[in-house]
Design brief:
- Keywords: Hydrolase, Metal-binding, Signal.
- Belongs to the peptidase M28 family. M28A subfamily.
- InterPro entries: M28_fam, Peptidase_M28.
- GO terms for molecular function: metal ion binding; metalloexopeptidase activity.
- The structure is a single chain.
- The chain is of the alpha+beta class.
- It is built from 10 helices and 27 strands.
- The strands form 5 sheets. Strands 1-2-4-3-5-7-6 form a 7-stranded mixed sheet, with helices on both faces.
- α2 runs antiparallel to α3, α2 packs across α4 and α7 packs across α10.
- The radius of gyration is 25 Å and the shape is globular.
Amino acid sequence: MRLRTVTAGPALAVFAAATLVLSALPAAASPGVRPSGSSLPALSASLLAAPPTVSVTNVNAHLQQLQTFATSNGGNRATGTAGHTATTTYLQQKLQAAGFTVTVQTCTTCSGSAKNIIADWPGGNTSNTYMFGAHSDGVSAGPGINDDGSGTASLLEAALTLAANNPTMTNHLRFGWWAGEEQGLIGSKFYVNSLTTAQKTAIKAYGTFDMIASTNGGYFVTGTDAVAVKLREYFTSINVPTETSTECCSDDGSFRNAGIPSSINSTGASYTKTSAQVTKWGGTAGAAYDPCYHKACDSYPSNINSTSLGRWANAEEYALWTLTTGTSTANDFSVSLSPATGAVNPGSSATATVSTATTSGSAQTVTLTSSGAPAGVSVSFSPASVTSGGSSTMTVATTTAAASGSYTITVTGAGSATHTASYTLTVNGTGGGCTGAGQKLGNPGFETATTPWTASTGVIGANTGDGAPRTGTRNAWLDGYGATHTDTLSQSVTLPSGCTAYTLSFYLKISTAETTTTSQYDKLTVQVGGTTLQVFSNLNAGAYTLRSFDLAAFAGQTVTLKFTGAEDSSLKTSFVIDDTALNVS
């Protein structure tokens, strides 16, 4: 994993049982019954009938081989070295022997003209191709066993397991192992750039697996593509909660930038585990997910969590198996809301973004409707129908006759299937002369183009890497150039008078390459109506954090909310903003 401007990562307990097979059940097991000796919850009958089990023993054997390649070749498997060449040769030989059609693609932009390994399993509709990938290289500092030997080895064994069972293929399955990820996603970019428009369109989803055995890790599934949907489905079936990661970045970015639905799936790198995550997964709060991230100690077996490795290997098998084998995959989609709650005074309105994603098959038209709104409340959508993968703005408007209380509004998306999402509306009590309450910013999550924001070129978009969104698919990314540069982001907003609370909030992530602990070289200034609320800088670097300000002093005024990011001549700092709101009540 390539974290461009961040640091290093930590520890769930390492389970050393090399023969342990986790998180998938034998095909012959009875529905709803745990396999003998398993401590895992029973899977549903539909899961039990699906994929074969991936042996973590075999995955570990691949990792041992990668360690041997590193040990025998200068201690690493970096792109352009003999250790990396041995890795790609090993992948090629194993896959060809199993019956895959293997393409060895020379990445001429990679160090040492390194090789990408692309493996296609015969059969299935190539117009519906599902692709799974990992990067085969490591950094020069060490063997690269968790980063990304874990993704490389688990996908290899998942591929070999599918080949050994030789299922009937409905959709097409392809794997990719990329060179040059640690040098800037070079190998995957080279591959994607080699594809025609039709070949890109044929790839319905791409999932990358980068660091899936961190010793203090979590379970991060970041994306809304069909692969991510299946992974979450699997982890839910074994009662393992997942989160969306704020770390970046890996080869999913190369595919996403080409318009291919993509996800990154990981147990975490250098960021630190929170107390809430310890409650979910165990481990040590305040320590990195992987304490050996990009270090010499990223070796086998000491830096591998076999529990996580086994779970992820079988999650991969479940996703690839259910997306490409058996009965033809029906067209399907998902529906989500951001935010999922809103509070208004009678006579005012609130908005939310309705996001859809194609979870299987092809994109389709999704018609949006709502139910559950009380008297005096109306719900509208703009647009009223979208192509799955698109979004709509939902407006919840109230009249002065709307009764105070909390109400659940159900948003329904109807296409070849029907899916719903819930929105909780709170109608505040009347009084106090507040007649224009609600969320006042337009396009608060940046999901619908740029309007009504005014921004520097390239600030608002479907950003990846250091600028990856906190939620949804779009956000605002100021600076991050490593050169003298200024970006701005602003919106004019009218605040009603007579209300009791005026709260501006937004999530801010700051990533920096600066090493100083005392000097503010790069700054983000937050202003309202010419008044500076706060100045953030490279000294405030950290993951997405909620920032809030009281704007009561601006009641009854039309003011401009403005963010100005100013970067000095070297060492980049990125200021990333998402999920803004200006709530008046």
